[in-house]
Amino acid sequence: MKYLLRPEGNHSNRLFQLAHIVAYCNEYHQPLEILCFDDMAPLYKDGYYCIPPKHSIKSAVMTFLDKVQHRTKIGFLPIIDFSDEDAIRQHPLESLPKNCIIDGWYFRCHNLTKKYRQFLREKYVLKDQYYTSNDLYIYISNLDSEHYLKVGVHIRRGDYKDFLDGRYYYENEVFASYMKQFEKLSDTLGKKVKFFLFSNEPIHQLFTEKFDSVISNNPWYIDQFLMTQMDYLIGPPSTFTGWASYINEVPLFFMETADEELTFDKFRVIDG
After folding, report:
1. In angstroms, rounded to a whole number, what is the distance separating the alpha carbons of residues 120 and 133?
2. 3-class SS at 221?
3. Domain ranges (residues) in the chain
4. Fewer Cβ within 10 Å of end Cβ, the chain: N or C?
5. With respect to CATH, is domain 128-266 assigned 3.30.420?
């Protein structure tokens, strides 16, 4: 039995963490208990990962023992620690202990997340009740795809001002520059662009004045689902857009710098 007790980061980080572990357990026919996803699992249709109430005591006990083990080094189950990028070489996936706790952000098996993408897509699809009557979802669904490209733009700043010394913190004009470049790309296909803007902060009027754009004002999980309905995604490096790209194979361009030339061949689908 493999156990996952510690969630890594916020929503999208946790989804990627689970995707790698679930893909691994599928490949190696390993039973898995996820004891840290009960808050998010009810959002998704399958409910497969929602720990039943009868497991709540087990979850509390396992979490307590895990904390004791980390502090005292008195073991009850091996903890396989993937807290750094070298861990995957130190702990080959095919030889992990039969029963253990998997810990850390760097548990990775990209070939398997690609292989089991459809399986994971079915498990992590948002419940219908959250989007079928959503006005923006209806608008996106009815947009004339023959004449329009749907492009999601993730305007993320906030904590990015300090993350990596502000490397991916961009002003409005930088986002606008990439959007203008995409308009020129779409001209080569004879199509117009409809931009859909996603952000956890107020969006400047610059974007609605200069571009044919719609602002989403939805909770994060609906925003992320709406991103999966796009033809293309643009934004600074983030697991938020990365998950939308991964789960529904939407081509994504990460804004690694403020002035890169935008071309269609720079969009790629995230494989996990």
Report:
1. 24
2. helix
3. 2-123, 128-266
4. N
5. no
